[in-house]
Design a protein that fits this description.
Layout lengths: L1 E7 L18 H8 L2 E6 L6 H10 L19 H7 L3 E6 L18 E4 L27 H7 L9 H16 L5 E7 L10 H4 L23 H31 L6 E7 L4 E2 L5 E2 L7 H4 L4 E3 L10 E6 L1 H12 L14 H6 L7 E5 L3 E5 L3 E5 L9 E3 L12 H4 L5 E3 L7 E6 L12 E4 L13 H17 L4 H6 L4
Parallel strand pairs: 1-5, 1-6, 2-10, 3-4, 3-5
Antiparallel strand pairs: 2-9, 6-9, 7-8, 11-12, 12-13, 13-17, 14-16, 15-16
Helix pairs in contact: 1-7, 2-9, 3-9, 5-7
């Protein structure tokens, strides 16, 4: 048996035909839906990129205990469990955050790995003079990104295409072998929304000047025409992703991998493209466009599930690790809090009553598949902590001032007996009363209006408390949200 995890970054489910979109050219995502179970209720856990990947490797939430950062020395990663059992794991990616201070311990958890350079502001090509930057609607971007773009002249130069080229090579060499795991992921369709011209031609407003392919993490201030240009550039990049997915599905067909290979296709999170008057992610309200994700699974043990729609509530970030360990008939770590997806794939049986998601020190949310509850901090004066032996941000170490705030160590329930340094998170004086938000997705899938239902809100708050306790949230964190 073999397994493949194919991950896109920032993939908005509303831009896929499999989820009802009628203007994005993505026939291979539709083709995938015929070869896999398509999940209707798939949600994120920790936000954003690297926190989601720590969830993925450990099978438990990252965001309750620390922000963006590396795998910790005491983490129990499922890829290492595979390796101990003689099952090789290979990572192929163009996600350059793996090479930064805040992600540099992840790729070494795989038996082997490949990384292709050039996405976003990846410090890839050395150029001492400023690049020429064309007229831009909002000016978002980095000089380094424009240096990198100079070296993407044809489709074969795109980092995503190189990443899938490597995947084709991996399958050509290893398809006939048994017991391996491949993680293939691309940074696309993460911003900037750059794609070869042939994909931009599919959409009336894509490309052109002034360009608009990198919206800021902010409220929408642009005109309707400008918003459409960004949306169409995103759609063009989704079409490039679709073309590469098609190449990969062709290889699955060519090597007859469907009979003995699990294929999981998903994303770390979605992206706002003007919905709710906002761009991007990392905001207090984690709307459906960010949190509710596309997810597909082909399980050779349940071929009858191919082409079906599944309504079971799932959380891929934490559920993939126990699913793959069970698929390879290996014991799960005692610290995993995710659930095996097997029953959901085979018979649409959900193992989650509710799933919790959020971002460290920013937001806390829970859904039972129908209602989504956004819980705000009610006691901001309560001191709580970050726990880490790896004090780095995305692109640098914590400051000496922050390091000097360490006020002790603590053995966490999942730290394998290791005492972890703890650092106080910022607190603030208690302010005005806060407003929690409750939405009924059955009657209001776009989350246009909050509902007032004390009984439902009390039930969702109880579920949130249960999930926080089940995943060992610090007591002070629970107090900050007024749940105790």
């Amino acid at each position: 048996m073999k397994a493949i995890l194919l991950f896109f970054d920032s993939l908005n489910r509303h831009y896929l035909p499999a989820y009802g979109n009628d203007f994005v050219h993505a026939p291979n995502f539709a083709r995938l839906a015929q070869r896999a179970a398509t999940f209707e209720k798939s949600y994120v856990c920790s936000m954003p990129c690297m926190p989601a990947r720590r969830d993925l490797l450990t099978g438990r939430p990252n965001f309750l205990h620390r922000s963006w950062g590396p795998i910790e020395p005491w983490d129990d990663c499922f890829t290492e469990r595979l390796q101990q059992a003689g099952i090789g794991s290979h990572l192929i990616t163009d996600h350059y955050h793996y090479l930064e201070d805040g992600g540099a311990t992840y790729h070494n958890r795989y038996t082997t790995w490949q990384c292709f350079r050039g996405q976003e502001g990846d410090p890839w090509i050395g150029q001492t003079s400023d690049p020429e930057i064309p007229a831009n609607i909002n000016g978002k971007g980095r000089n380094q990104d424009w240096v990198n773009r100079q070296f993407m002249r044809t489709e074969s130069d795109w980092p995503q295409v190189k990443t899938f080229d490597a995947a084709m090579d991996f399958l050509d060499r290893n398809a006939n072998d048994d017991r391996w795991f491949l993680q293939l992921e691309t940074f696309d369709p993460h911003e900037p929304f750059t794609s070869p011209e042939e994909y931009q031609k599919l959409y009336p407003s894509a490309g052109g000047t002034p360009i608009f392919d990198w919206p800021g993490y902010q409220e929408v201030t642009e005109s309707e025409e400008e918003v459409e240009r960004a949306q169409h550039n995103y759609a063009a990049l989704v079409s490039l992703c679709d073309a590469q997915l098609g190449r990969f599905l062709d290889a699955m067909d060519r090597h007859k991998l469907w009979d003995d290979t699990m294929l999981i296709v998903g994303t770390d999170h979605g992206f706002l493209l003007g919905e709710h008057g906002r761009w991007a992610k990392n905001i207090p309200s984690m709307w459906e466009e960010i949190s509710h994700t596309p997810f597909f699974v082909h399980d050779p043990r349940a071929p009858e599930a191919d082409g079906t729609r599944r309504n079971a509530l799932v959380q891929p970030a934490c559920d993939i690790a126990p699913t793959l360990l069970n698929f390879f008939e290996l014991p799960r770590s005692l610290h995993i809090t995710g659930k095996d997806l097997g029953p959901a794939i085979a018979s649409d049986a959900s193992q989650h009553e509710a799933v919790m998601f959020g971002q460290h020190n920013v937001s806390l949310h829970i859904t039972d598949g129908r209602y989504v509850y956004h819980r705000q901090v009610t006691r901001p004066e309560v001191e709580w902590h970050s726990y880490t032996w790896m004090p780095t941000h995305m692109r640098g170490f914590w400051s000496k001032e922050t390091l000097n705030t360490m006020d002790g160590t603590e053995v966490l329930p999942f730290s394998n007996g290791v005492a972890i340094p703890r650092f106080p998170n910022p607190t603030s004086p208690a302010g005005a009363a806060v407003t929690h938000q409750l939405f009924d997705l059955q009657t209001d899938p776009s989350q246009a209006t909050t509902i007032q239902d004390p009984e439902v809100e009390a039930r969702m708050a109880k579920l949130l408390l249960h999930e926080m306790q089940r995943t060992h949230a610090p007591a002070a964190c629970i107090e900050r949200y007024g749940l105790r």
